[in-house]
Design a protein that fits this description.
Blueprint: E1 2-3, E2 13-15, H1 16-24, E3 40-43, E4 50-56, E5 64-65
Antiparallel strand pairs: 1-5, 2-4, 3-4
């Protein structure tokens, strides 16, 4: 598990696919996606793919991602 809220975390930019998938995990119960986020084209730090829409991990409540 990779916690995006830990100091020194390498997860800063998250695509919507990875963010939404992380929120489905029971370990992230109670966390939710912000209703408004600023996005840009860039590389997702979770899936390592360039996506048209990435945002900060805080916009998903700093979830824990499965490796």
């Amino acid at each position: 598990m990779r916690d995006s809220n830990k100091l020194g975390s390498k997860i800063h930019w998250v695509c919507s696919d990875c963010g939404i998938e992380a929120l489905k995990n029971s370990i992230n119960k109670g966390k939710k996606q912000f209703s408004v986020s600023t996005c840009h084209k860039g590389r997702c730090d979770v899936c390592n793919q360039i996506k048209s829409s990435v945002t900060e991990s805080r916009d998903y409540g700093y979830p824990i991602f499965k490796e």
